[in-house]
């Protein structure tokens, strides 16, 4: 594992008291989390812990029942496309590429929040529109080179191997020029070689000055990668700290082994929350595909 030392600075993400209820069921309860510039933070927890629901609250797919989310000091609007425009990008558990579009076209879609030419410029094909189009293609190709897919720019996204589809989704997220990138299980389904490549890619993203918040079930990946790790258990933050602190916490070990701890909810309550999360539909501006929390 090789990476340069990055000096952490301003707080990029500041989530305070985030609570998400579905009817009378609480999926996320009073969670505080910060991410600083130049930092990689991990978010882990057993299945059904509320990790993806928390991500959805950060990115405008869900409006938190309580609490607030700030990006660089500004409260985020409750719409995902506005959150992207503000400077937060994400990937999903289930890959959400445009399968019948080319690799390059998928990345160009991610550029839409950073292009300034409007409807009439596009219709009239003005010189300004053509300049913006060329700039977007150049930037998209730079990102494909960065993730190692420039040689497949004209391939259909659906024809890429699974690991390369994951890379493409990251490139598309980076196309919006984010200050914070949220990765939802980026190594799910990968072999050890692909996982190591993803680890190096995330370090390279951080080295470009982009803060990263990542959900992952691969504990070796998380503890190799992250400066800090927060643990969610049944929607509440159980502990937060460096890798040694988290790995040595008996409550974390118990949670992953399925052993109850003090004040832990019962099995019926857990099942109700998981069912409510599964049935909740994201807001209408969400990307296509099923959202679930694992």
TrEMBL record:
Keywords: ATP-binding, Nucleotide-binding, Transport
Domain ABC transporter stretches: 13-259
Classification via SUPFAM superfamilies: P-loop containing nucleoside triphosphate hydrolases
Region (Disordered): 275-294
GO CC terms of this entry: plasma membrane
PROSITE patterns in UniProt: ABC_TRANSPORTER_2
Molecular functions (GO terms): ATP binding; ATP hydrolysis activity; L-isoleucine transmembrane transporter activity; L-phenylalanine transmembrane transporter activity; L-valine transmembrane transporter activity
Compositionally biased intervals (Low complexity): 276-287
Alphabetized InterPro entries for the sequence: AAA+_ATPase, ABC_AA/LPS_Transport, ABC_transporter-like_ATP-bd, BCA_ABC_TP_C, P-loop_NTPase
Gene3D superfamilies associated with the record: P-loop containing nucleotide triphosphate hydrolases
SMART domains according to UniProt: AAA
A biological-process GO annotation: D-alanine transmembrane transport
PANTHER family listed in its UniProt record: AMINO ACID ABC TRANSPORTER ATP-BINDING PROTEIN, CONSERVED COMPONENT OF ABC TRANSPORTER FOR NATURAL AMINO ACIDS-RELATED
Protein name (database record): ABC transporter ATP-binding protein
């Amino acid at each position: 594992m090789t990476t340069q030392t990055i000096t952490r600075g301003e707080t990029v993400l500041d989530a305070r008291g985030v609570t998400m209820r579905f009817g009378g069921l609480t999926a996320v309860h009073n969670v505080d989390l910060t991410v600083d510039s130049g930092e990689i933070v991990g978010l882990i927890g057993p299945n059904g812990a509320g990790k993806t629901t928390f991500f959805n609250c950060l990115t405008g797919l869900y409006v938190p029942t309580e609490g607030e989310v700030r990006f660089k000091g500004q409260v985020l609007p409750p719409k995902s496309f506005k959150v992207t425009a503000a400077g937060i990008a994400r990937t999903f558990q289930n890959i959400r590429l445009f399968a019948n579009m080319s690799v390059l076209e998928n990345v160009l879609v991610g550029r839409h929040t950073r292009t300034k030419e409007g409807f009439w410029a596009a219709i009239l094909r003005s010189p300004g529109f053509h300049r913006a189009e060329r700039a977007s293609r150049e930037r998209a190709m730079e990102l494909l080179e960065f993730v190692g897919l420039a040689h497949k720019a004209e391939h259909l996204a659906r024809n890429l191997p699974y690991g390369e589809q994951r890379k493409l989704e990251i490139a598309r997220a980076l196309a919006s020029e984010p200050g914070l990138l949220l990765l939802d299980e980026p190594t799910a389904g990968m072999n050890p070689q692909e996982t190591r490549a993803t680890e190096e890619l995330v370090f390279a993203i951080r080295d470009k000055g982009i803060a990263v918040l990542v959900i992952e079930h691969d504990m070796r990946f998380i503890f190799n990668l992250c400066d800090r790790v927060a643990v969610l258990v049944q929607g509440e933050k159980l502990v937060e700290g460096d890798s040694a602190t988290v790995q040595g916490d008996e409550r974390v070990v118990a949670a992953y082994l399925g052993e109850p701890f003090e004040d832990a909810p019962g099995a019926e309550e857990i099942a109700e929350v998981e069912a409510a999360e599964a049935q909740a539909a994201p807001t209408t501006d969400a990307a296509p595909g099923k959202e679930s929390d694992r």
